[in-house]
Amino acid sequence: MDDLSIECDLLVVGGGMAGMSAAAWAAERGAVVIVVEKAAATGGSAVLSGGVLWTASSAEKMRRYGAGDPALGQVVFDTYPDAVAWLRRCGVGMSLRMDVLHGQGYQIDIHGWIQHCQSLVEQHGGSVILETETLELIRDGTGAVTGARTRHEDGDVTVHAKATVLATGGFQASSELRARYIHPNARDMLLRSNPVSDGAGLRLGAEAGGEVAGTNRGFYGHLVSEPNRWDDERLFVALSQYHSEHALLLNEAGERFCDETLGDHTNTYETLVQSGSRALCVWDARVHEAYATVPVVSIGVPLDKMQTAIENGGKGVVAETVEAIGEFAQRQGFDGPAVQAAIETFNRTLREGWETLSPPRTEDWRPIDKAPFYALVVHPAITFTFGGLTIDAGGHVLTPQGARVPGLFAAGADAGGAYGHGYAGGLALAMTFGITAARSAGWA
Ligand SMILES: Cc1cc2nc3c(=O)[nH]c(=O)nc-3n(C[C@H](O)[C@H](O)[C@H](O)COP(=O)(O)OP(=O)(O)OC[C@H]3O[C@@H](n4cnc5c(N)ncnc54)[C@H](O)[C@@H]3O)c2cc1C
């Protein structure tokens, strides 16, 4: 018996932030859209997130802190106002403006947004099909992508579409791909995202002729304390040590290895590549009061990060002297005397010649010298990957020769290159490229 076959204007593979935004944008402009989602529900990492839709506050900051392909970063920056205007027009709940890292944003009702997108798709004759695997993209004689063969428990369905958007959320859930594209140490990295995004979009796109650029090793993530369980997604935020950018990070040899002040997300990559893929995060009473007990965005819930870490299996200590921090470090398998010396040297250098500090700090040159002292063993955890399918500024998937794969687009974390070792918003990246892909596919 032949497979069931359906037709639509736009096929979207993956029903998270990028996919649902692309689908709804096209549907609002009259497209019949089919979204195929592998999980039992839509939303992906977006509905696990804090819902803060933010990006760099200037094009210059986007280039500096996004640190990816400038043309793609510019698309995020330029399309962000359209995204916000659309959310407002749709009546989605939004907070007042807030500061986030080197940018600005709003907390949005992310569950409400995903539901609203689904309603728009359905109102315009499309549907969202859950628990559906995409086996392969189909192509016509010219090489253009014309849909996909999908598998649902009720049987296989071929979806014929004028355009297809890949939006499966990146490859962070595949230990093998993490090891191949990020770093060998990344194979065992903690996963701080939905568990479904294992690189299917990259595979499908590459099979259809698209390029997966293997040179972007970047990812977004955070340093987390050692968890005694990792099955409750609320721990993703509760155990994240956002304040590492005001602290000191020391490796097992007791050495500083990065400019901590560039951001906890940057510190996460730097820690991954250290011996043992871990670090000792050291801070003092000043940092504790100002940053380790205060939510990272104004709408967050205040938590004592050390106390929360220890309650959930973290290896940490609060001590009156730097010497005691060294002794704790030694018990955790770090070079204790070197740790003590590194803290003392750091403080002395900041008092006597901050300009000689190596590695340097871009911000926060205050010593870590107000007792009590805090030390916590931290590990990298990945939220989404920056490398992916090569796209142009219209979201078209490109071949290794730089030509467009006709009919094929990528958005969100499936699209590589907008960020390098930096970061200027995950939801914004997904939503702006969702809109961009839908526009390029003909629904401007
Ligand atoms: C704890 C946490 C907090 C965060 N906080 C923020 C924040 O406040 N601000 C911010 O900007 N970003 C935040 N993020 C990041 C943000 O959620 C992501 O960057 C964003 O959701 C990525 O969008 P996406 O569409 O690429 O992926 P997702 O939103 O993850 O969507 C991908 C979808 O594809 C589906 N899928 C996977 N494989 C397949 C397949 N083979 N076939 C079909 N479907 C498939 C997945 O199930 C999922 O539904 C946070 C993330 C987490 C986990």
TrEMBL record:
Names of required cofactors: FAD
InterPro entries: FAD-dep_OxRdtase_2_FAD-bd, FAD-oxidoreductase_2, FAD/NAD-bd_sf, Succ_DH/fumarate_Rdtase_cat_sf
Stretches assigned to the FAD-dependent oxidoreductase 2 FAD-binding domain: 9-426
Domain of life according to the entry: Bacteria
The keyword Ligase appears for this protein: no
One Pfam family per UniProt: FAD_binding_2
Keyword field contains Oxidoreductase: yes
Coiled coil: none
Keywords of this entry: FAD, Flavoprotein, Oxidoreductase
Gene3D superfamilies to which the protein is assigned, alphabetical: FAD/NAD(P)-binding domain (3.50.50.60), Succinate dehydrogenase/fumarate reductase flavoprotein, catalytic domain (3.90.700.10)
Name used for this protein in its record: FAD-binding protein
Organism expressing this protein natively: Brevundimonas albigilva
